[in-house]
Design a protein that fits this description.
Length: 102
């Protein structure tokens, strides 16, 4: 019996090809963005929110540079927005070093 072989593709891939690096960067950016955004609600967690926001921005920027599909870019934009909001609020509450230097 001839049956069509169905390949396992990524959840975010609309072109039918696997994109493990791009999917990983999108997921990491989204998780870092949510963590930075939620931790920015608490001023005492400014170190966590500013550092996770900065790493999320850098990860998301590189992910946008190498992304292949629109779904990946959508997830990256959500993560980048949350990372940026968390980063800026963390900077407003005390910054990256928070009085440890200076």
């Amino acid at each position: 019996m001839a049956q069509a072989v169905r390949r396992q593709t990524s959840l975010f891939a609309t072109d039918g090809k696997p994109h493990p690096l791009q999917d990983t960067l999108a997921g990491v950016t989204l998780v870092l963005g949510v963590l930075a955004f939620v931790s920015s609600w608490f001023p005492s967690l400014h170190l966590l929110s500013s550092w996770t926001g900065l790493i999320g921005i850098l990860t998301g920027g590189y992910g946008q540079f190498i992304s292949a599909t629109t779904r990946e870019r959508f997830i990256l934009i959500l993560g980048l927005g949350a990372s940026a909001a968390g980063f800026f609020l963390g900077m407003a509450h005390g910054g990256l070093f928070g009085g440890l230097i200076g």
